[in-house]
Structure of 2,4-dienoyl-CoA reductase:
Amino acid sequence: MTTFRDGLLAGKVAFVAGGTSGINLGIAKRFAQLGASVAVCGRDPEKAQRAAEAIGGRALGLSADVRDFGAIRGALETAVDRFGKLDIVVAGAAGNFLAPALGMSANAFKTVVDIDLLGTFNTLRACHDLLKLPGASLIAITAGQADQAMALQIHACAAKAGVNQVVRTLAIEWGPDVRVNGISPGPIAGTEGMDRLAPMAGMREASESRIPMKRWGEIEEIAEAAVFLCSPAAAYITGTILDVDGGSSVGDAGRMDMAKGIG
Ligand code: COA
Ligand code: NAP
């Protein structure tokens, strides 16, 4: 993809929580391609190391659980020790599984809320006094479940709805020096998230038929949106949730296929 000019993020330092695989790793790679120094962080230290090697350059792979404020603060401080400052933070760590409310223990519900919602708060709260101001840019990775109730997803629906309000509240409290936005990806191909949410044959096709753009998205398409939100082109954008979902959040396009038979 050649949508942004080389060197756009030269001199910037980015920390990506949950950046050791999937969508967030794609974001971290794109930041690095455009010149940023990047630290990625997940629970598994070996996975974090592999991610840093995949990013290349001076990338740093760190280990911390976002549910533990002290641990994520420590990882952020390590990144600042290495790179000297912090300009961009992505709060992207998440956990998910399909389960009906009646098949979910209180701890199962709490686990996802703690990773997604508390983890987002912890990451953004812990980074604030490390940020280079003004001009810092924070991004939370949310999901359509925040607005669209979804069976078997009560934990993620509750958690991501909270994430959206964390974004909006921090945008108010931390403006004008820090911009805080969310990205809400649609179903993204080749990710752990979709392996978990659409595990059976035929589910992808059924899902794609209901999306206005008629396809799942690519990791790189989310990464481009993240670059945009961190770039000067988004200088007046804060407190927004950017849907990068092929129109999924607008409505169900499945009826258009039915209409072809009618029309
Ligand atoms: N259905 C119902 N409950 C489930 C479940 C499932 N499929 N998977 C886990 N749980 C429950 C566990 O039974 C446990 O509850 P209990 O103590 O009452 O038995 C609770 O959730 C916590 O499970 P645990 O395995 O201890 O959590 P963890 O903190 O080690 O891992 C998960 C968190 C469960 C979210 C794990 O799947 C994970 O690490 N996911 C990260 C990757 C991911 O989900 N990627 C997609 C991002 S969208
Ligand atoms: P993924 O590959 O499973 O990535 C999850 C990342 O979070 C990994 O780096 C993981 O590393 C880390 N992580 C998980 N629990 C953590 C914890 N407690 N503390 C610290 N790090 C933790 O997932 P993905 O599918 O790419 O999803 C990435 C983000 O996009 C998530 O926020 C998800 O909700 C959102 N999203 C995804 C889709 C999709 O189609 N996939 C759609 C909408 C929104 P460790 O396991 O080593 O900790």
